[in-house]
Amino acid sequence: MQAGFPDFRLGSVLATSFTGTLSERHGKSVERVPTPHRLIDWLSVNGLAVDSCTTAQLDLARELRESVHAAATAAATGDALPASAVDVINDRSARGRAAAVLTPEGSRRWQLGPDSRVEDALGVIAADAISIISGERDGRLALCASPTCRAAFFDTSQSRTRKWCDMNTCGNRQKKARFHANQRKSPSSAE
Q: What are the backbone angles phi and psi of residue 31, rounded to the nearest 5°?
């Protein structure tokens, strides 16, 4: 992977991890796939390796990312799904060529062919988004409690009460802020 770019935020759900390639949406946003090659890196890390990516394909990927984010946010808040986002997700899903394969461990994984393109990988991401937004999978869509993040994530915890998209980033930041606020309220007794 190329140095000089922000680290990827990798989660266990493909579609919401993909929306995390743009983070801190309500603060100082961080673009984690600023170049076509960086998208290739992200796809590879997520088991969707492709050989090349053009600027136009990167634009298609970003359009899908924003559509998944908009639809997942609407689903998490109980709002109507934006028609334009649904159209993009459905279009990318229909255009992709990938096969679902069964692993020896009994789980499903997507397999791209040897001549796969970015559009095929985007089809897998769109299909994953459809499965979580439609309620097909066990879990619930939620929004990160961080006021600067507000990322959509898929909560599969037993209680379905997760507050943060990622405990190591947003959750940790909020806990540190709360700790420091409490330290300022109560004078130190370390004398």
A: -90, 115
